[in-house]
Amino acid sequence: MLILPPRSEVRARPIETERLILVPIDPSDGPELWLAVNGSRATLQRWLPWVQFHTDPAASVRFAEACAADWDHGRALRFVIRERAHRSLAGVVGLEACVHLHRSCELGYWLRKEATGRGLMTEAARAALGFAFGHMGAHRVRVAAATDNHPSLAVIGRLGFRFEGIARQAEWCDGRWLDHSVFALLATDPR
């Protein structure tokens, strides 16, 4: 079984890396999430089907509330990524679709456009994976990205995931079907 620490415990002692702080999403993060998504809409909506439904600040608050409930009910653990230097919100990284019996989850992530190209997502995702394997007792983490989403595929490659196949027409996004490259990392894989 997966071990999910209480959200309040991780908010009190967030995950820290050299440049980042990962804090469980809280409803109070809603306004900042709205600014990040809305300011990066053109970039994000190409790859993330939920962006089109993120239409106003209230949607961000509802998302943040759902994140808190998902954590509290053991369904998913999502973190706000903040840069340590100025505490600004850079994006979100999550351990989604937790399946306790199989000790598995899925990695998901996005960055606001101003935070891209600096290795922040690789750093944040590596920390989230460390949390999944080291604190939650995960055995398998799956990740998928569109076959032509080269920045996301590069992050996945740097994290040491192993390619498992192509999920054809896996998502309808931004007016087109996206094929997904599917990868996984096991607790027993070398990193």
From TrEMBL:
One of its GO terms (cellular component) is cytoplasm. Residues 37-179 form the N-acetyltransferase domain. Its EC number is 2.3.1.-. Coiled coil: none annotated. SUPFAM superfamilies: Acyl-CoA N-acyltransferases (Nat) (SSF55729). Keywords: Acyltransferase, Transferase. InterPro entries: Acyl_CoA_acyltransferase, GNAT_dom, Ribosomal_N-acetyltransferase. GO terms for molecular function: protein N-terminal-serine acetyltransferase activity; protein-N-terminal-alanine acetyltransferase activity. It comes from the Bacteria. This is Ribosomal-protein-serine acetyltransferase.
